[in-house]
Design goal:
By secondary structure, this protein is of the alpha/beta class. The protein has helices at about 50-55, 65-70, 160-180, 190-200, 210-225, 250-255, 280-290, 300-310, and strands spanning about 5-10, 15, 20-25, 35-40, 60, 80-85, 85-90, 95-100, 110-115, 120, 145, 180-185, 205-210, 240-245, 260, 270, 295, 315. The chain folds into two domains: about 5-155 and about 275-315, Metallo-beta-lactamase, Chain A, CATH 3.60.15; about 160-270. About 25% of the residues lie in helices and about 25% in strands.
Length: about 325
Amino acid sequence: MVRELKVRYDGGILVEVRGRRVLFDPVSYPSRKPDLIAISHAHWDHVNLRVLRKLKVPIVMSYATAKLISLKGSLKGLDLKLLSGERGEIEVSGIPLAYEGAGHIVGSLQYAILTEPIIAYTGDFNTDERVILKPAKSIESDVLIIEATYGDPYYTFPSRWVSYNRLLEKVGEVLESEGSVTIAGRSPGVAQEVIALLLRSKFRGELYVHPSALKASRVHFEEEGEDLNLKVALKVPEGGILIVKLSRWTEGLCRKALICTGWALSNRNGIPLSSHADFPSLVNYVDSSGAEEVYTVFGYSYRLAKELREMGYNSEPLVR
């Protein structure tokens, strides 16, 4: 292992390098106070407002991420360092950071600590060409911390455009047979991707957004520079298409919905659309990063680390 470097899971992904501590995506309290917190994106398995308020250290995130988080709770009083654009550099608390778009959801970022060695953290990311967002580019690094949500070889998705065409076909079939259709996807994320796809396809059905996906959709399309007058509905009207957030709170609506998620790969009624990278994309990222050490985190972290070792990479999972 590289000297003067420690990487472990401690409330979030904690990197200690040259006497400084950076905590990425904390969801619980770490054993030691960091010098800096960096938030990759606004999904609630990557950020906890109570932790941010308690630790009282500078926090780096994108403007869009701050907007999304503020939909759930106030950011008032936090020492925020807000980032704009797809890429850039900043120094906070004496720690030099680079950031790069992650292509996961609006505002999502990857980070690199610009020390010797260079340590990169992907957060959740997607390298596909999509109808929303720009695909993530790999960050060259010495040490890479990479997400492993779909880090099992089974999760090899069809091309984006094959999945898009399949979704549009299914929407047409259900509209014809049922008179209306509900589509469920994670929000923010795939739900906004489906909205953008349907608007481009100019389906004859009227498009509606469920309240569960509305606020995130407004933030997303504002950040994308699109002024959309989204129609709202609690249930799908006759002849309509309703976009709903995929969650336990909308379980009743989701039972009869077309489900868009990577976990639907084996479900003939689902569409394997995900805002995460699939297994081949994860491996490609590792290869293009040039990293000498690779830490895997989240999802299939153990399986991905094992597969990478068998390919000759120095890789191990971060134990949560």
